[in-house]
Design goal:
Chain lengths: ~190, ~190
């Protein structure tokens, strides 16, 4: 846009110049025209240099504008990523709490008081899981599924009859996803 | 800087111009100088307009640069604030878990199995509190402290002998801070 404008102006100046030289030449002859021309040339040089400077300034402006746009886009993406996984650090620290809950809830009992305490713990466990789910945390399914190295970590391999090969036959420790990110793979036993 | 340069150039042009007019005037008289002057004037007008355009472009560049700087600063502050309280939403959802833990752990028992289960729960509770503390969560102190409406919410007022006035005599529900932010005030009974 700016370049087009500059080119048009240069043409206008060039046309003016030619017309003027002819007029003076017709009236006063050769020698005097030299004086006039050198003054005009100086002014024209000045114009050319100003136009070059203008173009450079315009380009500098456009470059800064592009940098600005990029920086804004990058900042937005950084912010969104930070928001998406905002609670990851706390969630990672809460995984041992989930593990211990699962272990503690495995108790078998006939005692009434212990039973009622276990019920209370189950309720707390559920509240905790719900809060985590709301933030985007989901347990990874593994038992009976095909082994997937993206989600499962094989800590033991067996050859058992009655199971298809490459199937998870036992889960030692639950894995968890935060949205699309694995924050801990499931530790599993795989049938070969 | 750019303005200073422009002014110098204008002076140089003006000097050139005067010298030239005189020379032509001496040699060819009045009428012909008019032709030369109007051509020069046109070039000078052009120069003045280019210089004005240059100055405007320079100012536009400086304004954009200032906008860029502001936008960058704002983005950094937004990001830092988002990071500082990043886990607040999850933490708020975990407060009922903490409340229920405190209630459940208040059980008194002689049964060995219940005792061992309670010990397990205490361990889980401590792990949970440690994870929250690492993220910047602290319980608000209230019992025996002077009532402070910034941290305490008075749900009951009493007049008891043996206590100073405006002192928290009982805490009904724990309050919590996330760094410098109260995410839940402590619910308390105050002595008037």
């Amino acid at each position: 846009m700016a370049e087009e404008k500059n080119t048009l102006n240069e043409e206008a100046v060039a046309t003016n110049d030619t017309e003027q030289e002819e007029t003076i030449e017709e009236v006063f002859g050769e020698a005097e025209v030299v004086v006039e021309t050198s003054a005009t040339e100086e002014l024209e040089k000045k114009i050319a240099s100003l136009e070059a400077e203008l173009e450079e300034k315009e380009n500098r402006y456009l470059r800064l504008q592009a940098d600005f746009e990029n920086s804004r886009r990058r900042a937005r993406l950084d912010y969104e990523a930070a928001q998406k996984y905002r609670a990851q650090s706390l969630i990672s620290d809460l995984l041992p709490v989930l593990d211990n809950f699962e272990r503690a809830l495995n108790v078998e009992t006939d005692n009434e008081q212990t039973k009622s305490l276990l019920q209370g713990m189950e309720m707390i466990h559920r509240t905790l899981l719900d809060a985590l789910k709301k933030e985007g945390v989901e347990p990874i399914e593994s038992q009976g599924k095909e082994f997937d190295p993206n989600f499962h970590q094989a800590v033991m391999q067996v050859e058992e009859e009655g199971f298809d090969s490459n199937i998870v036959v036992e889960e030692f420790q639950k894995g968890y996803l935060l949205k699309d990110r694995v924050i801990r793979p499931a530790m599993v036993k795989v049938n070969q």
